[in-house]
Structure formats: C-alpha cells, structure tokens
Amino acid sequence: MNSFIYQININFKRIILRNKRFFLFDMMLPIIFYLLYSKVLVNGIPQADLKTWQMNYLISMIIYSCLLGSIITVANTLLEDKTSHFDILSRLTPLPRWQYYLSRILIFMLLNLISAIVICLVGILVNHLTLPIANWSLIILISVLGTTPLIFMGILISLANNPATVNLLNNIVVFPLAIISGLWWPITMMPKWLQSIGKLTPTFEISNIDQSILHGTIINSHYILGIILWLMIIVVITLLITKYQKHKELIIE
C-alpha cells in the first residue's frame, strides 16, 4: 500500500503540478470558450434566459474540460511514459501492472476534478451563478465520474505507441465528439441524423444527467446505462489490444 501511495504522489507531481499544458489547454481553453459565449457573445439572448444559458453552457464547458483532460492529456502522458522509458521503470517495480494504470487513473480523475471546480468558480465569480452547494457538488462529481470511459479511451489511444498517430487519433476523437454531442453549441442546431449519433455519445449522456440535476428533473436511467456500456466496451477493447501487443512482443522476442 505504501508503494502504491508513493506512486500516486510521484504521478501527482508529474502530471498535475509540473504539467503546464494541463493549465494552459485543458483548463484555460474551456474557460475562454465559456467567457466568450456567456459574457461577450450574448446579444441575441433575452435577458430573462441569460442566466439559464450561462448555467447550461457552464456544464458543457465542465464536460469539455474533462474531455480534453481524459483523452488528450491521458494519451499524451502515457505515450511520454513509453518514449521516456518511465513505463519500463514502472515495470521493474514490485507493483502489479493494474496498479500502474490505477494510480494514473486516480490522478487523471483528480485533474478533471480540479478543472471542474475552477470552471464552476469562474461561473460563480464572473456571472454570479447560484446553486445549492449540494447541486454544485453533485454536478462536479457526476462530470468527473462520468468521464471514466473517456479516460479509458485515452488509454486506448495511447496504445498506438506513435506520437503522430496518437495526436491524429486525439483530434479525430475529441473535437468531433465535442461538436456532435452539443458541447460547443446546442445539439438541436444540427441535422436530425447527426443528432441521433450525438445522443449516443458519452459526453451527451453526462451532459443530460448534469442538466437533470441542474433543473431538478428525474435523471433518465438510459443515460446512466449508456455510460456504463461505453465503459465496458472500451475497457474490453483496451484489454484485448493490450493482450495482443504482449503476445506480439513475445513472438518477436
């Protein structure tokens, strides 16, 4: 247990405290989007609906920040571990391999938690948004836990083991996912066929659960099951690819 905690401590310093890209990209980009679309470009929004729009878009940017942190940061961090041979060093420790990934998953979830809290504070301080502390806490918790499938998606992308391929896959997955799931603008603005695809994405499902908490409506259990299904599918695919790569390494050796 002490070795596991020590590894978490090392990863906390590496991935969060010394990771300037996290603060500049995963956190600042969603904050800039939020300030732009909730404070500056609001001329066409009636004053009576402004607070609702500011709160709804805040939720979208929380999820968008978690999306960036869960896929791009996860994939790039794990790839850097391999290219810098930190991955090999971790293999030499007595800790089992699953603890290597678990320690990183916990840190990535903490990273998402930090960004979600900061974005909420921006909404409170800049747009004077008010919610009971229980609602704020639940929205943040759901956003962080709900992005677990996205963390495994980042792990899956990192298995490409090539910087160019990983960056390409990051862009192919993250930005279309943000668009079609309605994080950048309302999903109702898209064609019906694209809406149907967007409503199947984990980011759309997380957003709708958060919206239900925000507006005090009943949470649709289909969205919870959808996130669990996404998690199961991605974990199975990740395990299969990892097993195949190990088998391939043994053959080459």
From TrEMBL:
Cross-referenced InterPro entries: ABC2_TM, ABC2_TM_bact-type, ABC_2_transport, Nod_factor_ABC_transporter
Recorded superkingdom: Bacteria
Pfam families registered for this protein in UniProt: ABC2_membrane_3
Keyword Signal: no
Membrane topology: Multi-pass membrane protein
Cellular compartments annotated: Membrane
Transmembrane segments: 21-37, 57-79, 100-126, 138-161, 168-187, 223-242
Record keywords: Membrane, Transmembrane, Transmembrane helix
The keyword Metal-binding is annotated on this UniProt entry: no
ABC transmembrane type-2 domain residues: 21-249
Record protein name field: ABC transporter permease
Species annotation: Companilactobacillus huachuanensis
